[in-house]
């Protein structure tokens, strides 16, 4: 993709069709389900950020393969709500994510970030959104791993969770209080909306962390996941 080309051509990057444009949520769900089938026993499934939409669909599709599901400051969406609707929800008003998109999704087929940006203003927003509590010295290596494109087909796919399937699996949510990609107001809204729709409660945990605690608070996160696993 043209974000890696030097010199960087912003116009080309904003217009280049995404190689991921054809990826669907159904494909992601099937891929995870196949992995879980090979585990030989029910697993504890963890999803971060947009990965929450996938793990929800996996649990709805194959609840017998999942012992518990863990949302790490992730999209835990009530029935009928697609991720894009949550991104634009009033509880997400303080999110910095919308300020990071650099292309028209209808043209390129994806929500596109510029993870290779050298502009200090944009790079500062990127850090604030995803890695606020990460040391600057570690930023370059971490941002290089950030995925540029989220396919439109996945962000417009409505959540299909139901009480009779998804709602039968124990679910946990790790709230990250300093997150500026999915603000705590958005996290709490999703938890309450799903709890109401499912008729049971999500088990809540809290970290004083930004959006990516696996980089900035790895020990605390590992300890918390170990606690959840029992």
Topology (SSEs and partners):
Elements: H1 10-15, H2 25-37, E1 43-48, H3 51-61, E2 66-72, H4 83-87, H5 105-108, E3 110-112, H6 120-130, H7 136-143, E4 149-151, H8 152-155, E5 170-176, H9 184-198, E6 203-207, H10 213-216, H11 218-229
Parallel strand pairs: 1-2, 2-5, 5-6
Antiparallel strand pairs: 3-4
Can you give a write-up of this model?
With 230 residues, the chain is of the alpha/beta class. The chain has one domain: Rossmann fold (3-Layer(aba) Sandwich). Helix content is 40%, strand content 13%. The chain is built from 11 helices and 6 strands. It has helices at residues 10-15, 25-37, 51-61, 83-87, 105-108, 120-130, 136-143, 152-155, 184-198, 213-216, 218-229; strands spanning 43-48, 66-72, 110-112, 149-151, 170-176, 203-207. It has a 4-stranded parallel β-sheet, sandwiched between helices. A two-stranded antiparallel ribbon has the order 3-4. The protein is globular. The model has no long low-confidence stretch (mean pLDDT 94).
């Amino acid at each position: 993709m043209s974000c890696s080309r030097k010199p960087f051509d912003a116009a080309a990057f904003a217009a280049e069709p995404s190689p991921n444009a054809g990826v669907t949520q159904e494909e992601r769900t099937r891929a995870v389900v196949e992995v879980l089938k090979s585990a030989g026993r029910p697993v504890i499934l963890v999803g971060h950020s947009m990965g929450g939409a996938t793990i929800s669909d996996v649990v709805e599709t194959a609840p017998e393969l999942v012992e518990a599901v863990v949302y790490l400051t992730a999209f835990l969406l009530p029935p009928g709500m697609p991720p894009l609707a949550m991104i634009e929800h009033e509880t997400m008003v303080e999110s910095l994510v919308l300020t990071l998109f650099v292309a028209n999704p209808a043209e390129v087929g994806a929500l596109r970030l510029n993870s290779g940006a050298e502009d200090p203003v944009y790079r500062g927003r990127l850090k604030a959104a995803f890695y606020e509590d990460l040391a600057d010295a570690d930023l370059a290596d971490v941002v290089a791993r950030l995925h540029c494109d989220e396919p439109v087909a996945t962000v417009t796919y409505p959540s299909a969770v139901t009480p009779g399937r998804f709602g039968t699996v124990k679910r946990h949510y790790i709230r990250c209080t300093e997150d500026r990609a999915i603000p705590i107001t958005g996290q709490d809204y999703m938890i309450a909306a799903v709890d109401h729709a499912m008729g049971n409660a999500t088990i809540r945990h809290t970290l004083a962390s930004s959006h990516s605690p696996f980089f900035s608070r790895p020990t605390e996160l590992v300890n918390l996941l170990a606690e959840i696993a029992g």
